[in-house]
Specification:
Length: 450
């Protein structure tokens, strides 16, 4: 890559990285709110995203390099200095930025934000630029260390993956987690058609192809960002991964039904349910976060949907919130999000072992609350964008032990034939990035007897 990338893009990437590390911010949201003002060129925008996401995606690998050239332990470094070094080393490791440019821009950042640490940043960056090729890395024979350092996953997660999936699959999953995800769009048939959008893309020379799995999906999309914003604003489509689309298909809403989406915001699945069910299907979208529901109301309006009612409330006590008996309830529960590390790499560093049990407790309370609203003969679908046993099979089987009036109801006829082989003997679907090329998602369809 040529030298001369504008420093302002690096400056924004640094400030975003600090907000993720110091405030626990979510990178996707921070980038969206920072860059949607239209002041940055497409090239600068791409650079900001590449730098900010790259540091999160490859953090352990970068830190391994810094540690080799720092005369102080990383734990003792000023966190701001460390983040400037991370951005600089990432450019040398992954972006092939000329060494002098990576060093100079890192020193510039240090001078601008930290003053006196610029000399230290200069020394470490020069050391890395000159000695990068000589660094030794843990090899695959020590797989836990290899995955921790070379593939940048926290040690506890590496050990969990090896125990859960075995060594071969743990390596494949870590590798898949580090891939840059492509964009997937779900078309809105009330405003356009898949063919129409694909023709528009082809005529402009933009990338995108019809999904082989789902008729409403366009995958591997690459279009200019202002065009994407325009399409979203006009309600032509929404950005949604295919594993999330599968969830709504497993609910299988129909005309004349009442369907409740219990943890609905930001609304991707609710709006999909409303489209799949048709005008005569009533969707009630519930969420406890009023602020997120406001954004959801705007999305529903953009998409031209008139069969969604939005209510604020806690799904733990769903019966108090919705005064209905539902044909189907979807609980897309809050979870560790470990199935989404391609898109949300910062989650690797925000999650800890204790979180899993805490979340499983919340999910168990939610599924109990949602069950009360399902009519006899009705359906309860539980989904989480993760793969931990505690949050997936553990929650569902624990619920089924308590509620003998519910049983698994295989969604084999509701999902693409290509995925039917991935169903467990109990009829649960676990989607994983390295297996199906989608974000990780667990889906269980349960039916109430009677």
């Amino acid at each position: 890559r040529p030298a001369g990338y504008p420093a302002d893009a690096r400056d924004i990437a640094y400030r975003l990285t600090r907000r993720v590390h110091a405030e626990g911010g979510y990178l996707g949201l921070l980038i969206r709110y920072s860059l949607d003002n239209g002041k940055l060129s497409a090239r600068d925008r791409a650079l900001v995203a590449e730098l900010a996401y790259g540091v999160q995606r490859h953090r352990n690998r970068i830190d391994h390099v810094i540690a080799a050239f720092s005369n102080r332990p990383l734990k003792e470094l000023n966190p701001e200095v460390l983040d400037i070094l991370r951005l600089g080393v990432f450019q040398l490791l992954e972006m092939r930025v000329p060494p002098h440019a990576a060093v100079n821009e890192s020193v510039k950042l240090a001078k601008r934000h930290l003053g006196k640490s610029a000399g230290y940043v200069n020394a470490v960056m020069r050391g890395v630029a000159e000695g990068l090729a000589d660094i030794s890395w843990p090899g695959p024979e020590d797989l836990p260390s290899h995955l921790e350092v070379v593939y940048s996953h926290p040690r506890w997660l590496v050990e969990y993956l090896i125990k859960r999936f075995g060594e071969k699959e743990a390596l494949e999953l870590c590798r898949a987690n580090n891939q840059i995800p492509t964009l997937t769009l779900r078309i809105n048939p009330l405003r356009t058609s898949r063919e129409e959008l694909l023709e528009m893309m082809a005529s402009e020379g933009w990338q995108g192809r019809p999904s082989e799995l789902l008729p409403e999906s366009i995958v591997d999309v690459s279009i200019p960002y202002p065009v994407l914003l325009d399409w979203l604003e006009r309600g032509l489509c929404v950005v949604q991964d295919e594993s999330s689309m599968l969830v709504s298909r497993v609910v299988d809403p129909h005309e004349g039904q009442v369907v409740v989406d219990a943890c609905a915001a930001p609304g991707g699945k609710s709006t999909h349910l409303a489209l799949l069910g048709g005008e005569g299907c009533r969707v009630i979208a519930v969420d406890r976060n009023a602020k997120r529901l406001k954004a959801m109301r705007e999305a529903v309006e953009r998409l031209g949907l008139e069969n969604i009612a939005i209510q604020t409330g806690d799904a733990t006590h769903l019966q108090r919130v919705v005064d209905v008996t539902a044909d189907a309830v979807l609980l897309d529960a809050p979870c560790s999000g470990l199935g989404t590390l391609r898109r949300n790499p910062e989650l690797k560093w925000k999650r800890f072992p204790g979180d899993i049990a805490n979340l499983a407790g919340i999910q168990s309370r939610l599924i109990r609350g949602c069950a009360e609203v399902v009519r006899p003969g009705g359906v309860l679908v539980y989904s989480v964008c993760t793969f931990t046993l505690e949050e997936t099979v553990g929650v569902v089987e624990g619920f089924l032990r308590e509620r003998k009036d519910f049983q698994p109801d295989s969604p084999a006829s509701l999902i693409p034939e290509a995925l039917a082989a991935d169903l467990s003997p109990r009829g649960y679907l676990q989607v994983l990035p390295h297996r199906q090329g989608m974000e990780g998602m667990f889906i269980a369809r349960l039916r109430r007897k009677g």
